[in-house]
């Protein structure tokens, strides 16, 4: 795989500082039952990195120490970590909102047959990968058979109340572009998703989140192989919108890797750009230290969060027109 960090470190991206910490985003491990082209984590079935029980035990302590109200769980497939359910129960018992970044097909993996019911029982917010409402496009990006399983999973979640008004069970979907392009307008695309998924499959959901592909790990390597890396970076920089700087996710979120080390965001985690501080800051440091005012580590990939309508783990951060792709 081609390394992209050497191509990103020399940057003119503006300096940023942290605000009050609100979200603890934890990567529970890189093992996944899928291997997706756009994956910035390079996750897959053969990855073995998983957070251990000692590190998992620190998470509820940090939530309490920093008075945090949102725990965002990601991977790989976070549900494949053996401590996933115990962690969810502990965070919910503390009154925290828990987000599960779910690839949907995990609901049908052996041992997870009751996972959907567990998530509903704990009122976990689901952010589900669904790169298109078309079978051809989804299977092209995520693998043969993924679309049909994803539809079945969404129907199962709907049957439990997810995505339905008044249920208290939030189901958001995620769109990633298939190639070297910026996402289309989030609101317009959400309307298309709602129409097509309901008309053909009776599926409902709360919100569509559009997320820009980052030029790192598997996707970045693919861009280099196809000779598109420089063109994609030019696209990001040409569409830079300074107004998005105010609400980029690194302002109030900290990312934790499977070893418990801290990063400004999930993308910095995958590039190995550790949080500023002495040594390599760790979860246990948050038991006694705040991050307010700390400088944020930036590089050229940060243009991905500020281009056009902006991009974060919560989708677009500003309104924008649909943008063109790299050819």
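^ Assign residues to that structure.
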């Amino acid at each position: 795989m081609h390394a992209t960090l050497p191509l990103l470190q020399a940057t003119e991206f503006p300096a940023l500082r942290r605000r009050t910490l609100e979200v603890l985003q934890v990567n529970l491990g890189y093992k996944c039952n899928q291997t997706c082209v756009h994956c910035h984590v390079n996750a897959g079935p053969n990855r073995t990195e998983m957070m251990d029980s000692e590190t998992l035990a620190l998470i509820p302590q940090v939530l309490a120490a920093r008075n945090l109200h949102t725990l965002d769980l990601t991977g790989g497939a976070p549900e494949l970590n053996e401590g996933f359910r115990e962690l969810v129960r502990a965070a919910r018992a503390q009154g925290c909102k828990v987000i599960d970044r779910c690839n949907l097909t995990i609901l049908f993996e052996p041992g997870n047959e009751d996972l959907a019911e567990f998530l509903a029982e704990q009122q976990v917010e689901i952010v589900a990968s669904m790169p298109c409402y078309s079978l051809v496009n989804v299977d092209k990006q995520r693998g043969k058979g993924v679309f049909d399983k994803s539809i079945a999973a969404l129907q199962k979640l709907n049957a439990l109340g997810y995505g339905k008004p008044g249920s208290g069970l939030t189901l958001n979907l995620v769109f990633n572009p298939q190639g070297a392009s910026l996402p289309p307008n989030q609101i317009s695309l959400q309307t298309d998703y709602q129409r097509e998924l309901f008309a053909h499959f009776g599926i409902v959901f709360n919100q569509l989140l559009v997320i820009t592909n980052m030029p790192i790990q598997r996707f970045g390597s693919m861009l280099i192989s196809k000779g598109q890396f420089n063109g994609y970076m030019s696209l990001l920089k040409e569409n830079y919108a300074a107004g998005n700087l105010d609400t980029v996710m690194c302002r109030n979120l900290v990312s934790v890797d499977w070893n418990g080390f801290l990063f400004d965001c999930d993308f910095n985690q995958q590039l190995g750009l550790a949080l500023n501080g002495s040594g390599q800051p760790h979860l246990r440091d948050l038991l006694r230290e705040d991050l307010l005012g700390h400088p944020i580590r930036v590089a050229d990939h940060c243009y991905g969060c500020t281009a056009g309508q902006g991009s974060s783990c919560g989708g677009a951060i500003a309104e924008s027109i649909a943008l063109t792709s790299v050819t």
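The longest helix spans residues 186-201.
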